[in-house]
Each structure stands twice: as structure tokens, then as C-alpha cells.
Amino acid sequence: MATVKVDTSNFAAEVLQSAEPVVVDFWAEWCGPCKMIAPALEELAVQFEGKVKVAKLNIDENPELAAQFGVRSIPTLAMFKAGEVADIKVGAAPKTALQSWISSAA
């Protein structure tokens, strides 16, 4: 399964009420580093399918959610467990670093 697109209409169901941990990628179309890590996140979404969900949230389309979780720069990756933010990673990182970070939740 690839990444899941989330917004205000499905954030609670897809992220907060998820039985599995969820990594939310807060991104924007104009963000170069966001585009750099997007392919790695797609691959990791497939790799961790059934263990960790990877979701993408466009901050330009959902500014209230970005503000709610204190996102000030992008890319910001937030790890949600049982509806709560368990960890946050700000900035682009190599796939190996992202894989290690996500596997800590799997």
C-alpha cells in the first residue's frame, strides 16, 4: 500500500483512531526537500505495510492541522501512536535514516 492522503475530513479516522502507528508527512507542493524524501516515503510505506501507516498532509490545503501540531517548517514527520504524537522529525533525511526511525515504531 502506498501512502495515504489525509486532510481535515479523514485525519481523525486515518491517524488518530488508527490501530497501527502512523507517520504523517507534513509537506507542501513548493517544498524542494519534501519532494526529495517523497519517493523514499512511498517505498517505506510499502515496506512497513501492516505495521506502520505512512500518511501525507498538504499544509497549504490543511493549515489548521499543521498549526494544531505545531508544524513550523517542512518537511516535518510526526509519529502518532494511539492517537498521540510520539515523536517528531523535522527536515529531510536519507532513506536509511527514515527507515531506522520508522522501524522503531513497527
Could you tell me the strand content as a percent range? 25-35%
Instruction: Examine the secondary-structure arrangement and name the CATH architecture.
Output: 3-Layer(aba) Sandwich
Mean pLDDT: 96
Q: What is the helix fraction of residues, given as a range?
A: 25-40%
The tally of structural domains comes to 1
N- to C-terminal distance: 16 Å
- Give me the CATH fold name: Glutaredoxin
CATH superfamily: Glutaredoxin
SS summary, helix count: 4
Cα Rg: 12 Å
Order of strands across the biggest sheet? 1-3-2-4-5
Overall shape: globular
Structure, explained:
- The structure is a single chain.
- The protein is α/β, with parallel strands linked by helices and 106 residues long.
- It has one domain: Glutaredoxin.
- The chain contains four helices and five strands, in the order βαβαβαββα.
- It has a five-stranded mixed beta sheet.
- A hairpin with a 2-residue loop joins strand 4 (76-81) and strand 5.
- Helix 2 packs across helix 4 (95-103).
- The longest helix is centred in the middle third of the chain and has 16 residues, at 32-47.
